[in-house]
Every structure is written in C-alpha cells, then in structure tokens.
C-alpha cells in the first residue's frame, strides 16, 4: 500500500539540512559544546522558564526529572500519582527508581488526570509528587491543577513531550510544573532527530540535572556553584574537574542536535499556527459524529496528532481499514490505558476505569503536521465518515 498521508512528518527541512552541511564544513565540535547551552537558553526564553537542560530523548528527560527529586532530598515520601493515559516512559522511571506509583483515571475532556479521581487519591495517599501528561498537546485544566497543588503541597512534574507550542490562558504548556519535559523526536512539534529537554525555575533542581545528565560531575555548573561543592567536600582543586558528586548517567545530546534545535525554535510560531489551524478543522468536520478532546476556550492546541474516539471497537476497526485502504497512516490511541499493559499489571494488577478504558478500546490517531492543507484534512475526514455510514 502506498502511503499518501503519513501520521507524522519530519520538521527538519531542506534549508535546515543545507545549513547543517555548511556548518559541518567548518569542522566544528560535534559532541556537546557551546551550541548546547545556547540552545538551552533559547528554549528557556521561548517557553518562559529560567533553566533548561538538553538531553538525548524525552524519555531521558522524564528519567532525569524523577531522579532529580530523589537526589535533591525534597520528597516527604516516594508516592507519585501517574496518568493512565500517556506513554510508558512517563511511568517507567518511577518504578525503576523505587517510587510507589498510584494510577489516576483519565479526564473525560482533556484525557489527562481526572480531577475528581486525582483529589480522591491526594486525600487518601498524600503523595509527594504528581506527574501529568499534556495529552497530544491538548492543555489540561491547569487552573484547577495548580489550586490542588497549592492545597495538597505536591511537586508537579509536567510531561509536555507531545505538547510543545500549546498554551493555556496565554501561558505555554511546559511552564507550569516544578519541572517539565519535552521531546524532540521525529514527528513532534520540532525535532533535533533525537532529543529531550527538562525545564525548571528551581536552581537547585537545575544544578542536579546538569550533574546527573553527565556522569554526576560538576563541569557544567556555573563557577560559583562548582566552587561551593569543592569547598563543601574539601576537594583538592587539582582533581576537581573529575570529581563525581552524584550517581549520574550519560544522557547528553550533541552540538549537532543543538544546531538543528536552534533553527527549529525559529520556526515555532509558524508551526504552532499551522497545527492549531489543522486541529480546529478536524474538530469542525468530525466532532458531530465522534468524540475528541475538549479544551478551554483560551487554549491553543499544537497537537502532534489528532486523537479521536470511535463509538465502539468494531467501528474503530472499520475506520482503520478504510484509512489504510486510502493510504492514510493511522494507529490506535497511543498506549491507551497504561494500566492494561503487562509492565503495570504484572506488578500492581490491572487498572480499569471508564474513560481510560474507552480511550484504550476505541481511540485512534489521525495525521497532523504543518504540511497538511484543508483539502487533505477534508479528504481524510470524508474517508472516516464514509466508512461508518
């Protein structure tokens, strides 16, 4: 089958490749160097956070957020509320690092954390941490989330890996949490081939992130913070560049990836407007027949795919068959309910809840990228509508 419409397309275009070729011709440093902090600062300024750390994937960004909490000593317990709808690496680091994950039902509007169930879990478990996903780029009900954060005093991790460019009441997604993650994988809003970012306003978290990203040493810290560590631990200055203060990893990216990232940020406003227009057009064409995510009127949705729910499992099969016949790439709704996957139920038993289960059994993705024009979205939507007549 020839694919006419791909689920995702690369945002790295010919101009980016040509610029990269010219840069490579200067024989620059390719591993992490001066372009990495330049990219980090540019992203921080764009998103509205003080600090950002560039790493090798969005999954690694989530891992770094969890481990930073452990290393910083800020947790009153290791309980963390996790979403039922998201991606496996939103939850996997919590299990790997010995947290106690508590799964939450999906919100019927945004598909993120259900506010009623979340409040029940907060009252019952008093967790130190909550991690939410901005599902597919649809902003969650952040006013309500921040009120719960103030009331119950939890640390908020914001997985915005699939939501770069979205905003809620004029504030960019990824700037609400104590730390937030972003993914720069192929097909996301912007791409560095592979890559991830953690952003924060907390200097202590930032310093820990820099160290554990790179082996646990202090070479990436500002000079004052480095000197404080040297003095605190009575380190011989001769050895100070290669002293390991934390149990770190090697999750760095490279200046080659950062070079592409710097150029991608320059295109963000255009990319946001195109994805927002496409998302709205899909909703106009399909919402009378199918269920899709809802969002606040003051939100801007920069979605990586358009997610929709069929009316039942059999209808989803008909739709997917029709899409594939017409060369339209699709897939079921991400991972659906993560509580129905072996990594979860073999440890904690199956998690079943009405909305999460509905997404799991009836959800699917439609192509969404800046290259799609209104006629393309109309054709894709007509194929879907015709398949269920």
Largest sheet: 7 strands, mixed
Helix/strand order = HHEHEHEHEHEEEEEHHHHEEEHEHHEH
**Rg calc:** 22 Å
Q: In CATH, what is the homologous superfamily of the largest domain?
A: Type I PLP-dependent aspartate aminotransferase-like (Major domain)
Question: Can you tell me the CATH class of the largest domain?
Answer: Alpha Beta
Number of domains: 2
Helix vs. strand class? alpha/beta
CATH topology of the largest domain: Aspartate Aminotransferase, domain 2
Unreliable spans are: none
> Within the largest sheet, what's the order of strands?
1-9-8-5-4-2-3
**Number of helix segments?**
14
Shape: globular
Shape-level CATH architecture of the largest domain: 3-Layer(aba) Sandwich
The beta-strand count equals 14
| Strand percent estimate | 5-15%
How confident overall, as mean pLDDT?
A: 96
Question: How far apart lie the N and C ends?
Answer: 24 Å
Q: Report helical residue fraction.
A: 40-55%
Descriptors:
389 residues; alpha/beta; Aspartate Aminotransferase, domain 1; 2 domains; 4-stranded antiparallel sheet; 14 helices; globular
Describe the structure in your own words.
- The strands form three sheets. Strands 1-9-8-5-4-2-3 form a seven-stranded mixed beta sheet, sandwiched between helices. The protein has a four-stranded antiparallel beta sheet with strand order 10-12-14-13.
- The radius of gyration is 22 Å and the shape is globular.
- With 389 residues, the protein is an alpha/beta fold.
- Helix 6 links the parallel strand 4 (129-133) and strand 5 (155-159).
- The protein has helices at 14-24, 35-47, 58-72, 88-96, 115-125, 142-152, 203-213, 223-232, 255-265, 268-286, 313-325, 342-348, 354-362, 374-387; strands spanning 51-55, 79-83, 100-104, 129-133, 155-159, 167-168, 171-172, 179-183, 196-200, 291-292, 299-300, 306-309, 331-332, 363-366.
- It is built from 14 helices and 14 strands.
- It folds into two domains: 14-265, Aspartate Aminotransferase, domain 2 (3-Layer(aba) Sandwich); 268-387, Aspartate Aminotransferase, domain 1 (Alpha-Beta Complex).
